[in-house]
Amino acid sequence: MEEKRKEITLIxxxxxxxxxxxxxxxxxxxxxxxxxxxMFFTFWGFRxxxxxxxxxxKSFLAKMFGIIEGGGIGKASPSKYSMAxxxxxxxxxxxxxxxxxxxxxxxxxxxxxxxxxxxxxxxMDIMEIPREALIDEVKDVVGVAFMLEHAKNSFTTxxx
Length: 160
Known about the structure:
- This protein has 6 helices and 5 strands; from the N terminus they run βαβαααβαβαβ.
- The chain is an alpha/beta fold.
- It has a single domain (7-159), classed as Hypothetical Protein Ychn, Chain: A.
- The protein has a 5-stranded parallel sheet with strand order 4-3-2-1-5, sandwiched between helices.
- β3 (116-120), α5 and β4 (140-142) form a beta-alpha-beta unit.
């Protein structure tokens, strides 16, 4: 009897640099260990799957959120010590000095290892994010029932 592959589900709510590093490190490590990995991106976690120059929102409030949250994964700042972008600059320099991959490269590695990335439909509706604003590697736009089905089949589910 063939053993079923282990599955892990990551719910990525945060768009903070340090939390995205953790999410992509765990996802890539799990995929490299022959696990099925599902990443479900919601709210601020969308920064990790948005194109760098994508515009979002048609209504006034959604446009404002798009401006405030502007930019893709390269604009992620640390959850502490952002210091108007200086924290991001310093962390990127420290990561490079230690030979650590950029967030963009970590995301690409996860994709290359077969990590499945999904976008939350409800978040897209609320924040008026069009599908065209997301990177092409996002497998689909799904609802919470889809994520729960994967979580139910996973040996662990992480909320980052």
